[in-house]
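Entry: DUF916 domain-containing protein
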Amino acid sequence: MWGLIKSLLVVGVLCASFLVAPVSFATSISPSVVDLSTLQGDTVNQIFYLFDEKNTPAQYTIELLNVDLGTNEDEMSFTPLSADLASMFDIGETVRFVQAKQVEPVNLTVNVPANIQSQTLVVGLKVTEVQGASSGINVQTGLISLIFITIGDNIDSSAQLLDFSSSKLVASQLPLTFRTTVRNSGQRILQPQGEITVRNMFGGLVSKYGVNEEKRRIPIGQERTYTNNWGDSVTGDGFISSLKNETKHFAIGFFKVELNLKPYAGGENITAVTNIFILPWRFLLVTTAVFALFYGVVRVLRNK
């Protein structure tokens, strides 16, 4: 699983802690990821929807967990909320009985204390299906919906662009890989998004790519690298395969590659530029050889 962070974000199936044996869990919760912004002393509400997609009714328990995003994207872990944090949240009934093919709304209310410091909280709404005794064993399967709560309007949102580069500055053919590395040096979880544009030596737009279209997030004090590929991978090895690629994805000359990136929605724009040079020598060699051969044949025919 691609780790869920306040820079990613999908429904996680908690296997190690909650599964004893494989069990069908034909249920989903929506939305799977939520961003909430609020101020000290305010109250914010969010509705989640629990879908029972099976042909039989089921019982579910609902609870909130603290989410530790870890140092890597695959190290997310869950622990019980502290008493202070738990007092901020209200989810109503924690045990729900849902009829088959029905939808159960779950209303989350967040009461933000007036004296809490500005910060970003990451909480998981865990829905657990309690299997019936008829299955032979009592097995629980859990789904997590991630909730990112940004509290306050004076949070340090600093971000550093550590690297924006191309896999090659001088190349004979595509593809080229552009790497964008961003570090979160502030106090809020970041979700960088932006675009990379490629322009030829005359300023014409050649290609454009979205950065972090997967919406991966960067926890505080960490960094993430986002990649974009210009062109398709070469199929096969050797001169002929490279020649075909140079012909199919023809590019020649100097190109300006520009990055425009916002570390979070509404954040200040980060820009960077790198320049590359592409010389498709195989294509030029064959083209020159064909032209020379054609020219030679014409001269011979004219001299007859």
